[in-house]
Write a structure and sequence with these properties.
The structure holds 2 protein chains of 2 kinds. By secondary structure, chain A is an alpha/beta fold. Helix content of chain A is about 50%, strand content about 15%. Chain A has one domain: Rossmann fold (3-Layer(aba) Sandwich), CATH 3.40.50. Chain A is built from 9 helices and 7 strands. Chain A has a 7-stranded parallel beta sheet with strand order 3-2-1-4-5-6-7, with helices on both faces. Chain B has a domain at about 185-235 and about 245-400: FAD-linked oxidases, C-terminal domain (Vanillyl-alcohol Oxidase, Chain A, domain 3). Helices cover about 25% and strands about 25% of the residues of chain B. Classes of the chains: A alpha/beta, B alpha+beta. The interface of A and B includes residues 38, 40, 44, 189 and 190 of A.
């Protein structure tokens, strides 16, 4: 299993579930110290092997190398979880174009670049699961979070197309749309219906096993977002959240 | 951390910290003197205010739960302080290792277990949690990270075990585990009709059983005071396949806070009668899963809410064995005079394995633990009188359970404070610590 953004809270929680089953892991993250901590933890919890790859994923030139290394390391790839991302402060981005583009590079462009490369690998294998972490925030551009939301929106659309392309080849493409999750990334933000990260990880593992196409987690968000999508733009633009 | 202010398990007293930092990585953690008072918080299972920091900075350590190393041959585990015993056991039991000492809930962090130097049903055999800690790392507000073990920074090691989080922030802990070959516990429950018999059967049992504890009805009066059940157990020594079965999560959670009368004197009396009466025969032998033996209440999430809005108090003291029976009787009569209602009381005999912890609570003797709904001033007065009884025989109360003891009284019970004080980090403090030192 390949995990991109392996030090994120959701990725760690999913990885622990797989480690307990004795899988081999290839972990990618920006901080060497943190990814080493995560790798040791997963080995202690039962992972058969945990290789690490340290990279700043905004640098597109490393993407091809990291994919090649993971293929060389694992041989056959059962599952790729792409979970890296940042939650920028929209108020700062409102007045900073470069920071906006920078966050988009991390949250959208690098995700698409890496996903695309793995899609080709899995297509060649003729199987496997490609799991991308989008968000319910990608369904509409909110005043308070539209840089993050638009990047997630790009992932959702890209994954939708990949799924259609790869389904005939036996490759499973899963778009994960978590609601707000209680993790260090969302620290300090007060959001309704904060979900426990372990619940989200449980849902993701189940969705991989059941070859689900689009996962809302917790499930209540499928209903909430159906309503949110139906709100007319003239009304939506006045909402505060 | 998005939730409301951290609570203690007794939900009394309440505290509002200035801020709560959710710590994701111990490597990023730094303490600054200008943030004081600072306190690390785990899962909030201590009862009173040792885990609270009113007006201060609370470092929520729950997410710092990485395991660094688990040596499956030697039974040695080194993990971050926020790892819970529940999470630890999930990893270690399948390889035949159990925590050497466990409190009555697995939802405590190993950092909290160290800071309160917790004990369990096997204290008479193996001492406290701190007796099995080989080393840990302590982050101090001067920026240093100190590895402490009996051989290196020994006195800081001793001060931090049972040091109530006041010597700094523990980032990781290394623990020696206990070998098991089965999840099963061979258990015997013996019905006894008085506190005297509780003590007698405990003495008989301690020689041959690793785990002993007694549940005592404290609502009966006179000669029947303290009728109860002595529970004794040991891990099955016949290897079986249970080690690799998955453990159960809480089955039900108390969804809301019921009215306070639910657990009051009359209802508790009825409960105690039923609890004692449910065992008909003098002795019941059975084999149970270790989780139901050690953690009977963990299957009910948030059971502390049953005590209602005002919360509960727990009182735990230890008195010397010599005259211990009489001291316990005196305490129980004192509480009965004040019509203080208590659910089951728990009695256990501490052994003489000494903890390295300077402020560690257990001492050889009998320990008595009572859960009481917070009924206000009358209860507080009665407990003050109990403190007097405990102190007069050279006993002490347990800080991890306390929400109300007078500072003067606590200091009298813990003359070791003089040896402890030089190791307190100037930036660290807690609601408990300020309360204990407020009447200097």
């Amino acid at each position: 299993m390949v995990i991109i953004g392996a030090t994120s809270a959701i990725a760690q929680s999913v990885a622990r579930r797989y480690a307990e089953q004795g899988v081999q892991l290839f972990l990618v993250a920006r901080s060497e110290e943190k990814v080493r901590t995560v790798a040791s933890d997963l080995l202690a919890r039962g992972a058969k092997r945990a290789s690490i790859y340290v990279a700043d994923l905004r640098m597109r030139d490393v993407h091809a190398d990291l994919v090649a290394r993971s293929v060389a390391d694992l041989g056959h790839i059962d599952c790729v979880l792409i979970a890296h991302g940042v939650m920028p402060d929209q108020k700062l981005l409102d007045v900073d174009v470069d920071a906006t583009i920078d966050s988009f590079m991390t949250n959208a462009v690098s995700v698409i670049s890496i996903s695309h490369r793995y899609a080709n690998v899995l297509e060649g294998q003729g199987g496997g699961s490609l799991v991308g972490l989008s968000s319910v925030a990608g369904e509409r551009g909110r005043r308070s979070n539209y840089a993050y939301g638009s990047a997630k929106s790009a992932i959702t659309a890209f994954y939708s197309g990949l799924r259609a392309r790869l389904a005939p080849k036996g490759v499973h493409v899963l778009t994960v749309k978590p609601g707000p999750v209680d993790t260090p990334m969302t620290h300090g933000t007060k959001l309704p219906l904060m979900a426990n990260v372990e619940v989200v990880a449980y849902d993701i593992e189940r969705a991989i096993n059941k070859r689900t196409k689009v996962l809302y987690t917790p499930g209540i968000w499928r209903l909430i977002m159906a309503i949110v999508r139906a709100i007319p733009e003239s009304l939506f633009m006045k909402s505060k959240f | 951390m998005s939730s409301a202010a951290p609570e203690s398990w007794g939900r009394f007293p309440r505290a509002t910290p200035r801020s709560v930092d959710d710590v994701a990585w111990t490597s990023d953690l730094q303490l600054h003197g200008d943030q004081q008072p600072i306190l690390a918080y785990g899962l909030g299972r201590s009862y009173g205010d040792v885990c609270l920091n009113d007006g201060g900075l609370v470092l929520a350590m729950e997410h710092c739960n990485h395991i660094h190393v688990f040596d499956r041959e030697k039974g040695l585990i080194r993990a971050e302080a926020g790892l819970s015993i529940a999470d630890l056991l999930k990893v270690t039991i399948p390889h035949g290792w159990f925590v050497p000492v466990t409190p009555g809930t697995k939802y405590v962090t190993i950092g909290g277990a160290l800071a309160n130097d917790v004990h369990g049903k096997n204290h008479h055999r193996v001492g406290t949690f701190g007796c099995h800690v080989s080393q840990f790392e302590l982050l101090r507000s001067d920026g240093s990270r100190v590895t402490c073990s009996p051989n290196s920074n020994g006195e800081l090691f001793n001060a931090t075990i049972g040091g109530l989080g006041l010597t700094g922030v523990v980032t990781w802990v290394e623990i020696h585990l206990t070998r098991i070959v089965s999840r099963r516990i061979e258990e015997e429950s013996i019905k006894v009709s008085s506190l005297r018999d509780v003590v007698r059967v405990t003495d008989e049992s301690d020689a041959a059983w690793d785990y002993t504890v007694s549940w005592v009805d404290v609502t009966t009066r006179g000669a029947k005071l303290g009728k109860g059940l002595v529970l004794r157990g040991r891990f099955s020594t016949a290897p079986d396949a249970t080690l690799t079965t998955r453990t159960a999560e809480p089955r039900i959670t108390i969804p809301f806070q019921p009215p306070s009368w639910l657990l009051s004197y009359p209802t508790i009396k009825v409960f105690n009668t039923l609890w004692y009466g449910k065992q008909r025969s003098a002795i019941v032998k059975r084999t149970v899963d270790c989780e139901s033996f050690f953690y009977p209440l963990d299957s009910i999430g948030k059971w502390n809410l049953l005590y209602g809005k005002r919360g509960m108090l727990q009182y735990q003291c230890v008195v010397p064995s010599d005259g211990g029976l009489e001291s316990m009787q005196a305490i129980l009569s004192e509480l009965q005079r004040g019509r203080v209602s208590s659910f089951l009381a728990v009695v256990k005999k501490f052994g003489n394995v000494t903890s390295p912890g300077i402020l560690s609570f257990p001492r050889p003797g009998l320990t008595l633990t009572l859960d009481m709904p917070n009924s206000g001033a009358k209860l507080f007065d009665a407990l003050d009188r109990c403190d007097e009884i405990v102190r007069s025989v050279g006993g002490r109360v347990y800080a991890a359970k306390d929400a109300r003891i007078k500072g003067r009284m606590f200091r009298a019970m813990y003359p070791e404070l003089d040896r402890f004080l030089p190791f307190v980090d100037p930036a660290m403090s807690s609601s408990f610590w300020r309360r204990i030192n407020s009447d200097q």
